[in-house]
Amino acid sequence: MATTTTSSLDFPCPSTSSFQVLVDDSDLAQIKYSDGWLTAGARGFECNATTHGSVHVTGTHTTATFSFEGIGVQVYGTIAPNGIPTSTYQLDDLALFTFTFNANTGNTTNYRVQYYASPVLEPGNHTLVISSDGPVGSSQMFLDYIIYNPVPSYVSDASSGAGTSTSSALPSITSLSGSGPSTSHSAISFSTGALAGGIIGGTILGLLLGILFSLITFWKRKQRNSTSTDIDILTEATGDRTSSSVSMPAQSYTQSYNAFSQTHSSTMPVVLSPPVRNRNYYIPDRKNRPPKSSSEPMIIQNGGAGSGSGSEMEEEIRSQPPAYAN
Fold it and tell me: Quick check: is 229 in a domain?
């Protein structure tokens, strides 16, 4: 029975995007092979028409080591008819991955099969060790090429403070056989949380400072207005008074006529204070004032009245002045 071949692509090497770098199996500067590998290849079906096939002999541990700087890596190769090769993949300190092929190859050669696909990695340097072990005469593993995802430029720029891009997506790489690990990768994005948080935090801080400043200004203005109002009220109540009121003790006066005398005392104090502007003062009429008192008694003599001493008490007292009658 003739052997048939299948290819997932119509050109020798797959195309890659700006987020992918292809390393052919023949690049000995980047892939370090141990003993136990042979070169092979099929023109038109394998990248650059070359592969590295493992040879299982007694006491041989066949490995290939690949170091790269990036965030992901995938391994592709060929599976020959009538056999499923055994291979393992150790990336840094992650769990060991063992490749299994779930299809019956029969007499079909499968090209560009995805042997391994890593999860999304932290940006940096990583090392992948490929091992092909098996009993003598077991099926060979044919390594065709490796694709890795370099550190995006916006990540490098952001680490140096010059990044402007915020997100991007890695291309999805799908296994032709479906036997490898999941090959659909989530978008690798530079979270805008930090930037948005900084903007929002700055805005909130600015608003709080503005409100605080407004409250302080309002409080100071209110204090000034309150002080001014108090002064106005005090001025309104006191006018132009510049000195305290002075209270004088009650004064008394005595008036006497002849043998009769009456003493009148005032009980209200006399308050002296500066004049108040715009206030009318009442000045009593001098004509209505009571007569001025005399310290000497009024004596009625024969034929007239006059003042005298007490030696003339034998004179007849005619009457008490009507102004002081009870």
Answer: no
Q: Which domain holds residue 262?
A: 253-267+284-326
Burial string for 130-143 (b: 16+ CB within 10 Å, else e) reads bbbbbeeeebbbbb
Sheet strands (E) in the chain: 4-6, 21-24, 31-33, 37-40, 51-54, 62-79, 88-91, 97-98, 108-117, 124-132, 142-150, 246-248, 252-257, 260-265, 270-272, 298-301, 304-307
Question: Would the pTM count as exceeding 0.85?
Answer: no
Q: What is the pLDDT of residues 227-254, one digit of tens each?
A: 666 555 555 555 554 444 444 555 544 4
Which of the listed residues 174, 193, 212 is the one where a domain comes to its end? 193
Q: In this structure, are 22 and 147 located in the same domain?
A: yes
CA distance 72 to 27: 19
Length of the chain: 326
Q: What is the pLDDT of residues 27-41, one digit of tens each?
A: 999 999 998 898 988
Select, from the ranges 124-133, 160-169, 247-256, 273-282, the one with the highest average predicted confidence (pLDDT).
124-133
What element of type H or E holds 198? helix 193-238
The least confident of 27-41, 56-70, 135-149, 158-172 is: 158-172
- Helix (H) or strand (E) segment spanning residue 86: none
Q: Given its phi and psi angles, is residue 36 left (phi above 0), alpha (psi -120 to 50 degrees) or beta?
A: left
